[in-house]
Each structure stands twice: as C-alpha cells, then as structure tokens.
Amino acid sequence: MVHIAVVGSGVGGLAAAIALQARGFDVDVYDQARTLSEIGAGVSLGANGMRVLDALGLGEKVRAVSSNLRRIQFHHWRTGEIFYEHPMGDWYEGRFGGPFLGIHRADFHQVLLSAYGGTPLLGRRCVAVRESADGVELTFADGTTAHADIVVGADGLRSVVRGPDEPVFSAMSCYRGLVPIGKVPGGDTFGLTFFLGPNRHLVAYPVRNGEYLNFVAYVPDPEWTLESWSARSEPAEAVAAFEGWTDVVTTMLANAEEVGRWALYDREPLSRWSTERVTLLGDAAHPMLPHAGQGTNQALEDVAALAAALTPPDRSLQQYEQIRKARTRQIQLGARANAACFQLPDGPATEARNERLKSLPDTVAWIHEYDIHAAI
C-alpha cells in the first residue's frame, strides 16, 4: 500500500488525508502543534468548496454547524447606509449549485477530525524533507524521522516543505474576533456584510448557527509584521482604529470577547509545485490574501484534484499541479487587487466602484460555479 505523509493538520491537510484514505492510501498526518486547540475565528465556504465536502460525505455535517449567509450587503463606513445588496441563500444555491456558509474554524476542524480515520501525530515540527528514488524522509525538530512514498506539504504560508522563498508582506494587518450577535445593532440581519471606507474595511458574517458574528477588520499597518493565529490585541485598540465609523462597527469591535491581530502575507505564485514524490496544497502552494474569501475553498479544490491525480493507473503529481496552477494564480492576484478596491476614499473612484458592484454576481461567477470534479 502506498504510504502518504501529510505535513499540517489544518483544514487542507485533514481534508486531503480523508480524501486520500477514501482512495485506499495509507495516510499519516503530522503537525508541529502539541495540542489541537480552538484557534482562529470564522471561514467562509462557497459552492465550489462545498462540492468537495459533499463528495467526501461531509456536506451535511458541515451545514449542521454553519450559518447560511442569505444576503450580501455593502455599507458606507460612516453612515452605515447600504449602498449595494443582493440575495444569496436560495438564489446563490440555485445559481452556483451549493450554499454559501459561514463556519467557525474550530467547528469545521472538528468535523474533519471526526472523519479522519486516525489521530494527527502532534509535536512533529518538520525541519527537513529529503527525497530519493525510493521515497521521502521527513526530519522533525525532536530528532525523529518518518518515511513515506509521497509527501503533501499542507503546512501553511511558511511551509518548510515548500522551501525558503520569502513571504510578501501586504503592509496591512487585521483584527479578528467573535461577538455575540445580540450585542451588534441589527446583527440578526447580517449575511455576508461589508463596511467599506478610506484605508480600512471590515467584513462580518454569522457563524455557529447565528449565535456569533465573525468579523475581520483590515487596517494599513507596515509596523505590525506578526503573522500568527495566537497573537492578541485589545477591543479598545480595534475601536480606536475605526474611530469615526458607524456605531454598528465600533459597537461590534467593542463587544468582542477577544481580538486577534494578524499581519497579512501572501507569496508570489510558484512556477512549479511538485517533484516526483513531493507536492504542496492550500496555503503552502498558493497563499492568498483573504480579500477574495477563497483560501479555504481553493484548498478544498486542491484536495479533490490531488486525490484524483494520485489514483492509479496514472498517479502523477504533475497532473495535479497542471489542473490547479492557473486558477489559483488568478485568484491569488485578484485577492491582492481587491484590497485597494475595498478601501477607497469617498469620491468619484468610490462611486465608480459602487456602480461596478451591480454586476458582482456575474463578476465572481467563474469562481463560485467552478466544479473541480468536472475539471478533473
């Protein structure tokens, strides 16, 4: 039996392990963390990612712990006025073939952990990968090693499996957190909700079946360079960063149970992801800024393509890369461009952007209607 080692037990790594086990592979998952704790906040899942979860038999379990985002709204930063709104919910599912969901990362991770037929091997920080004709040897920081026929690097932005190229700093950071939905004025009406303003923007949506709002508040900050899920800030600091904004925003930030602070990085698109026995997946392959809401969905598309490419008789990591590279590159670069579009000062440029939003469903259709299984 072919033995595959997955480095990283995040969403992409666990989903890959589940998909590869379903194809008959022997899979071990390694992670540097010593415990699997509830970190992060919300992620969004579109129809393109849900197609993969449905094919893995996980769709209903994910839906059960998610919030269906039934509308998209864009608000003016100061007045709070909605200047563009479009239905999602049934409309979105009818057009794109699946729901658009908000889910807490920890809830999602638990669904995947329960489906994975094993236990991630923790405290294994990979420090070296050595490929040879008969396999791949992983070396960990504690001095132990592991051997596999194939290695999948799902170890994130600063992937050891990927190698030493430097992340690209966006000179932007974000405040992330959860707030009880009843503590936000009008919070029970939120779907996928944007507040756009000069040099800043905030995105919020419900998670945990509408119990909480997840928010991500983006600010320019060339000094804050720490990229870490565990870095903490204070609600008051986030409120100060959005002084003068609508009370809905400042009240949301002030009532957060805790606030994380995260510097935003991506990397330049790779010309090559794979060797004969080693490949990359998710943020290790194509880390992207969050301004397209596609990081998790693209990792899930990777999972489906990888499992298919490794299935006999053809078994080719190069085939996986060929299916995925052009699409992820386009989304990576588009996410970079969106930040500037979301943070315009009031004036003609903002008015032109708001006019373009009228065609938003058609503009993003190529992302959300995509069916990775058909592409394979």
TrEMBL record:
GO terms for molecular function: monooxygenase activity. Pfam families: FAD_binding_3. InterPro entries: FAD-bd, FAD-dep_Monooxygenase_BioMet, FAD/NAD-bd_sf. Its cofactor is FAD. It comes from the Bacteria. PANTHER family: GERANYLGERANYL DIPHOSPHATE REDUCTASE (PTHR13789:SF318), MONOOXYGENASE (PTHR13789). This is FAD-dependent monooxygenase. It comes from Paractinoplanes lichenicola. The lineage of its organism: Bacteria, Bacillati, Actinomycetota, Actinomycetes, Micromonosporales.
